[in-house]
Amino acid sequence: MANNSAENKFHKYLIVGMCNHGMPKSRHSVGIQVLDRLATDLDLKWTRDKNCAGFTATFDLNEGAQVIMLKPKQFMNVNGKSVGKTVRQHNIDADKVYLMHDDLDRALGKVSIKEGGSAGGHNGIKSVQSLLGSAVNKMFKVRIGIDRPSSKDEVVEYVLTNFTQEEMTGVQEGVAKALQLWTWHLEGQGENVLLLTNLYGINPKITQSLNRKKKKEKIKSKDTVLSDKTDIGISTTSRTHLEKGVVSTDKHLDTTSISGRQRVESVSSADKQQDRISRTHSEDGEVTVDMEVKRTKGE
């Protein structure tokens, strides 16, 4: 019983390095190269975990969140078995799963993150979809560009061979960007990521956005909560958020008769502006990073 209590104090994240087991340096396995970098930076050791059909390493992100890193001990086209076992073993919500994988359609060193979406021809993602169904639509895919060979006939051999020495600089940049983007994504959801920002830096725009969000939440907490059937005059620069009931307007008294409880807050022009961060947002919700990575800790 005590063990269950200790387990439940955390909400858990799963970060998966999609790979071909036995081929860790190949282009197809760039996902586990990201995880190996993270494990090295945090001085973590990998452990064989039969319950997860792979190797795992775990660390506490903060006082309330735990991260489980997974390297499937399987071929790419059946990586989904390992992901499914781990999700069930640790009771991890789908929206807290990150799949790190290679992408032929992105230049070497470019990375992006997207919630759900199609497999894009990637057999590892197809495997996760086939075993976990619609749950994969809530997972986040971190795509690491490996470039595409000149001929379609060369694709299979290309992804199964190792990166060349000339490509390694681009690979290392892509790995660093993937970890930075993942860190920013967690921070953007309000997670305390000080452990990671000490390694991979911060995004000032996200920090500013979070501070504005906290300020708005503080203001909302001070809003007047009206009791049932209260009459109040509301100016044209205010908006009414109903928690329950209906709103009807009395034209003669220029008041609003309210049934139920509500909150009234001022509308400023700043509310109409979208928070922006120094990343590129595509129309389908994908976020791409293509910039120089500045590390705060020596390589």
UniProtKB/TrEMBL annotation:
Family annotation (Pfam families): Pept_tRNA_hydro
Record field: compositional bias (Basic and acidic residues): 272-284
EC number: 3.1.1.29
Top-level taxon: Eukaryota
GO function terms (MF aspect): peptidyl-tRNA hydrolase activity; tRNA binding
PANTHER family (UniProt xref): PEPTIDYL-TRNA HYDROLASE
Protein name as it appears in the record: peptidyl-tRNA hydrolase
Species in which this protein is naturally found: Mizuhopecten yessoensis (Japanese scallop)
